[in-house]
Amino acid sequence: MADLKDKTALPAYYPEFYSFPPFYTRQPNAASWSSQLSQWRSFILAYCRAHKLWRLNLVDTMETDLFYNKSINRKLPLPTIREIVDDLVKSSNAEWLSSEKSIAYIYWRTPEDFASQLYSWIDETGQKGTVLTLLELTEGDNTTQQEWYGMDQAMLLKCLNILVKKGQAQVFSVGDDKGVKVW
Amino acid sequence: MAFRKIDLTPALRPLLLPSETLLFVQDAVGLYEGRYKVPNFQNGSAYLTTHRVCFVNNDEPRKYSVALELKDVERFELYNGFLKSSPKITFYLRPSTPSLLNSRDRSTSRSPTYSPVPTPPRSSTPLQSAALNRQWICPICTFPNPFTLNFGPLAPIPPCLTCGVKPSRSVLDAIINSPASVKPHNGMADDSALQSGIQRSKNACPRCTFENDQALRNCEMCGEVLSSDPIDDSLVAGPSLIRDESPAPRYLGSVPAGEQIDCVKLSFRGGGEKSFHEKLKGAMVQRKWLLEQAPPVPTITSGAANLTLDVRESDGVPRAPVPTERIVGVRGLERQNLALRMNNQRAIAGAFEDLEALMSRAKEIIALAENFATQLADNPSLANSEAKEALSQSAAILSLRPEDFAVTKDQISSSSSLSLYHAELARSIADFLADDRRSILKKEGGAITLVDLWAVYNRARGVELISPSDLESAAKLFDKLQLPVRLRQFKSGLLVIQERKKTDEKVAKSVVAWLEELSKLETQGTTTDSKWGKSVLAKDAAEKFGWSIAVAIEELEMVEERGELVRDTSFEGVRWWKSPWYSLE
């Protein structure tokens, strides 16, 4: 991804507050913080969606454009990022990979949304009843236009498990790989 | 009665006269006239000063506060209390002369509901104001004796100071009544009063015609009530009658016709009467009010040049070379200036000879210092601002009257708890801060930290310094006492003292307005990044509003707390921005 972005040519998903220095300081005032938090939440989700980011390594992304505005030389500190992601986890827009809270899955759509998208895609393409590997779903040539293209395997499994619970799919192992059958 | 309504300071303490000092304060005091409780004056503080006994009621202090001049007090007595009766100090008032002129004083000093029995008009100005500064010449040894202060038509005739022989009353009366150098408005009244007093020397009983002593109210022979017209009565009710009586109520219920109220009692419900009595004794012995022969309230701050002239005349200092012939024009002005300067020089030289002289000349020197300061300030050619500042500061310090503000522990009775001391301290601090001459709060941008105040206040006191904990305790009482300043604790725990009217909203509004103004200027200048306005550091706010840095940080955090500012912490420090989210809500 391009490190240098002209401020004037920022993509639309960048919030206007991106250039506001106090945006990068956690506001002690509760009311200000809640506004700031919601701005950050939507920005993170929009950013991840635009960049097709599925998992966020907080320490690594700290230095990216998401949390670091080089033009005003402001960086969102790590504890604040963690706090925001925590909030995302609360609303099931994210999930910590481990208890160390260093890497998180970011669901810019909820797993349910992805599940229904998967189901309708399989339905539309007439692949009901056929066994598809997970790799096929995320890396296959047919799915490049789909939103879940490139999705993390573990995450995809999570979404498919929703379908399994509904009784619309079955997940089984094929050697090292995993397959799914939807009906 | 001798009560006068008094002025109170913003902090609801009695406003002291220029040479008056506070001696003692006692709370939980009630006021009696004669043996009757005075309504609305039953729960207050008694302030003993060198000149007066002031009573300030706790409720509606501005309405119910009076003072009794000590010079009107003939004598006083301590009553220790008995069972449910509180200890009291009784002030027996000097018989004063009735005067229509002085009834004006009365009407202002007393509310209609105030007196339990209809009392004839009595003067609050005793006779000695006329007798003061006069001398009588002993017919035996021709020694010119001064009049004693309590001299009046009923007072015992004082013996000559040299030979000890008492003169006849006529000698004294002749001098008192001689019109020379008596102030016109007092003189008239006193004269007529005296005349009637002399005529009333006989007091015949209407029933048995026995000629009683003029002070008696009941006939010595038959016990008949001696009827007397009100004016005479006020004279009759002299201390000679009351003197032997007990202050305790004698007849309960009916009020004998024509009863006079000639004593005032302070009832000490919370104790403290002993110390009050001691201090009162001292004050009555010292008679500080005798020193004050000038008009009652000379203002220190009146035009300095005029004042120096006044003082010179009243002190009897020989005049500087005054041109005998009238010289006009520039030369005349020059001469005049020269004379003034020489006089000033003499005043300064004299004042600094020794401490006593300095004290006695304090007023003069203060006036001079202020005069110099204003001259300097007016003179643009003297651009040395440092000198100017030093001079005006020294003038300000000279004009400080620490005794106005210094409440010491020994002024407060030991019987009442420390809280009274702290309350008084709080009042004195409030007065200190509210004092226009210093305008401490204004200089500090309307808020001063407790630490700074402690330093400034103790510097002003000079002696009897207060401890920080006392200051804190006193400051905590500001709200309770409804003083014009308040103690505020910021989030961080920093304590500042602020004007009461300076609320958070006002501060926030001014800060935000200032930021908006700044960003407006910014947009006019450059176009870059004007979207978010301009940010400031706490230092900028401190400069702008005259706050100390600590106060500025706290105030900004207060505004942040309200959500109107947001912070931007970076390696440069914390910058403050107007919150874009505040208006969104």
Automatic annotation (TrEMBL), chain A:
Recorded GO MF terms: protein homodimerization activity; structural molecule activity
Cited InterPro entries: ESCRT-II_cplx_Vps25-sub, ESCRT-II_cplx_Vps25-sub_N, WH-like_DNA-bd_sf, WH_DNA-bd_sf
Q: Which domain of life is it from?
A: Eukaryota
Keywords from the named record: Protein transport, Transport
One family name in Pfam for this protein: ESCRT-II
Concerning its family, UniProt says: Belongs to the VPS25 family.
Q: What is this protein called?
A: ESCRT-II complex subunit VPS25
Q: Which organism was this protein described from?
A: Arthrobotrys conoides
UniProtKB/TrEMBL annotation, chain B:
Region annotation (Disordered) ranges:
100-127
Q: Pfam families attached here?
A: EAP30 (PF04157), Vps36-NZF-N (PF16988), Vps36_ESCRT-II (PF11605)
Where is this chain primarily localised?
cytoplasm
Which InterPro entries would you find in this protein's record?
GLUE_dom, PH-like_dom_sf, Snf8/Vps36, Vps36, Vps36-NZF-N, WH-like_DNA-bd_sf, WH_DNA-bd_sf, Znf_RanBP2_sf
Q: Which GO terms describe its biological process?
A: protein transport to vacuole involved in ubiquitin-dependent protein catabolic process via the multivesicular body sorting pathway
Q: What's a GO cellular component annotated to this UniProt protein?
A: ESCRT II complex
Q: Which GO terms describe its molecular function?
A: phosphatidylinositol-3-phosphate binding; ubiquitin binding
Ordered alphabetically, the record's keywords are: Coiled coil, Cytoplasm, Endosome, Protein transport, Transport
Q: Which residues form the GLUE N-terminal domain?
A: 6-296
Where found, per UniProt?
Answer: Cytoplasm; Endosome
Q: What does this protein do?
A: Component of the ESCRT-II complex (endosomal sorting complex required for transport II), which is required for multivesicular body (MVB) formation and sorting of endosomal cargo proteins into MVBs.
Protein family membership:
Belongs to the VPS36 family.
Q: How does it assemble?
A: Component of the endosomal sorting complex required for transport II (ESCRT-II).
Name the UniProt record assigns to this protein: Vacuolar protein-sorting-associated protein 36
